[in-house]
Specification:
This protein is α/β, with parallel strands linked by helices. It has helices at about 5-20, 35-45, 65-70, 75-85, 95-100, 110-115, 120, 125-140, 150-165, 195-200, 200-215, 220-235; strands at about 1-5, 25-30, 50-55, 90, 145-150, 170-175, 240-245, 260-270, 270-280.
């Protein structure tokens, strides 16, 4: 497995694969890898001649310097896991190499795509995400790029980026990987105290609640969201948002439909977690029951 630390070494390493016309699977990550990330890696290695993973904690997508600094990092364990997973190359990005000193151009998603969900409170987050992804797409020129449904707004923005800017990349969505009790795996889970880890179960529980209420005939978004908020707050979480959106435009919907996406962000202690699912569980894999 090649470990590449500069854009230049990355470009050089890709040359022979390009001349072989190898299909290239790309999994962008910020490291601190867990089985959710490895689900993306597994699909990439199975479906491409070569797989490349990036480990880069992208400073331009953090709202606060403190969040960037406290973001978990575990390079040695990540490299070990990726080696075992059969990855061909890893790009370990360094900020001062990835971004030139006078970086001035940005990819800015606009409109409904960023008006709701995390876009409402996380100002420049998706500008940072879209910009780093376009840069990495330009350098790597992957055949297929893999993204988790766990970050549903990000996935939707990437799909639109590829479409609107005419990139010839296939975006592959991978279902959310969860702990046995239902908590969606996330690098930030490492920062939860045991008490907050227990409280955070309210996220997946509330998604199940939304599915149950919807299955029972409740379609009004206001009612559904209210029930979920109460559930999370009773468990000790501080709700950032609970919203129901159209899965393609991310516009808020007044009445939930089978394919609508219910999405949540909440703080447990100082750790902000997100989760989402489709309202109709027959459309995606059901959430596991918590014990
Ligand atoms: P991150 O390192 O958090 O930026 O995530 C890198 C990629 O892994 C993104 O496409 C995420 O959506 C995906 N991912 C993170 N957690 C999970 C999970 N629990 N299940 C599936 N994909 C995930």
């Amino acid at each position: 497995m090649k470990v590449l630390k500069t854009k230049q070494s990355l470009t050089q390493a890709l040359e022979p694969w390009r001349s072989e016309s190898a299909s290239l699977g790309f999994v962008p990550t910020m490291g601190a890898l867990h089985p959710g990330h490895f689900a993306l890696v597994e699909q990439a290695t199975q479906n491409n001649d070569k797989t490349i993973v990036s480990l880069f904690v992208n400073p331009t997508q953090f709202d606060h310097a403190s969040d960037f600094e406290s973001y978990p990092r575990d390079l040695e364990a990540d490299l070990e896991g990726l080696r075992k997973a059969g990855v061909d190359a890893v790009f370990v990005g360094q900020s001062d190499d990835v971004y030139s000193p006078h970086h001035s151009f940005w990819v800015v998603p606009e409109g409904e795509l960023v008006a709701n969900l995390c876009g409402r409170t996380r100002g420049l987050h998706f500008r940072g995400v879209a910009t780093i992804l376009l840069k990495l797409f330009n350098i790597i020129r992957p055949t297929q790029a893999y993204f988790g449904e766990k970050d549903f707004q990000q996935l939707t923005i990437v799909r639109r980026l590829v479409k609107d800017l005419d990139l010839s990349i296939k975006v592959v969505a991978v279902p959310t990987v969860r702990d046995l009790d239902g908590l969606a795996l996330a690098s930030r889970n490492r920062r939860l105290t045991p008490e907050n880890r227990r409280a955070a179960l309210a996220l997946s529980q509330s998604l199940r609640l939304a599915k149950a209420l919807f299955a029972g005939g409740e379609t009004l978004s206001d009612q559904l969201c209210k029930a979920l908020k109460v559930h999370i707050e009773n468990a000790g979480g501080r709700v950032d948002y609970v919203e129901i959106v159209d899965p393609t435009t991310l516009a808020l919907v007044k009445h939930g439909r089978a394919e609508s996406r219910v999405a949540i962000a909440a703080f447990f202690g100082d750790v902000r977690l997100i989760d989402n699912c489709q309202l109709d569980s027959s459309l995606d894999s059901p959430l596991p029951q918590s014990s």
